[in-house]
User: Fold this.
Amino acid sequence: MRKKIVAGNWKMNMNISEGLALAGSINKYFLDNPSKRAEAVLCTPFIHLAGVAETLKNSKLSLGAQNCASEPSGAFTGEVSCDMIKSTGAQYVIIGHSERRTYFNEDDKLLNKKTLLALKSGLTVIFCCGEVLPEREQNIYFQVVKKQLEVGLFNLQPEDFAKIVIAYEPVWAIGTGLTASPEQAQEMHSYIRSLIRERYGKEIADQTTILYGGSCKPSNASEIFAMPDVDGGLIGGASLKKDDFCAIVNAV
Ligand code: PGA
Assistant:
């Protein structure tokens, strides 16, 4: 059985006390109502990591960052390295979110560099891919995602690739309220799995967790997560509300 994951991406929201309060309330909910099927992950801003790690001590919730530096250490003012992230107690890092690709010009080559560093630090990478609206309309979304995965991930050794989580996030669905239909999500997830099968073989393809992201909410999560190749979600806006996030985790 593949691991099911629901990861909340807080993005650039909440100050420290708000973030600790949210993490505390989600933690309390899952202590009282343990999640049976999915692992829940909170991906917070860097400055929250150490504090939230403390809040989540002895809990089943996991912690992640939303980005990492593309260099291991040194004179890179303002950057945060994978080793630093790991040292907070975080286990995950999101790499290649479309907002990083769009606003910070991160390309697949750079994302590949970050991915290799994150693996070296012992972090589990949630690698994001997905097409923008014109690419969907021009019917080139398969090629777009294929290239993102080929350049971003497919030079990894099989034992390293086996540790990757993929998140398919159609950019036109992020923060827009427009969700991919369950069929659209399934079509792409099964395509991604077929690419992994070609490159790494059936066993690794069958074990790879592929998350869907883009306007997931309690009202649509169950039908998307019911698709055979959808193994959970990467949740933006709805992860900032305890009740919504917990309901989405329970929808797996
Ligand atoms: P959204 O964001 O759920 O707010 O659409 C998803 C994401 O960006 O990961």
Notes: The beta strands are 4-9, 38-43, 62-65, 92-95, 124-129, 165-168, 210-213, 232-235. The pocket of 2-phosphoglycolic acid is lined by residues 9, 169, 174-175, 213-216, 234-238 (CB under 6 Å). The chain has one domain: 5-250. The chain is about 45% helix and 15% strand.
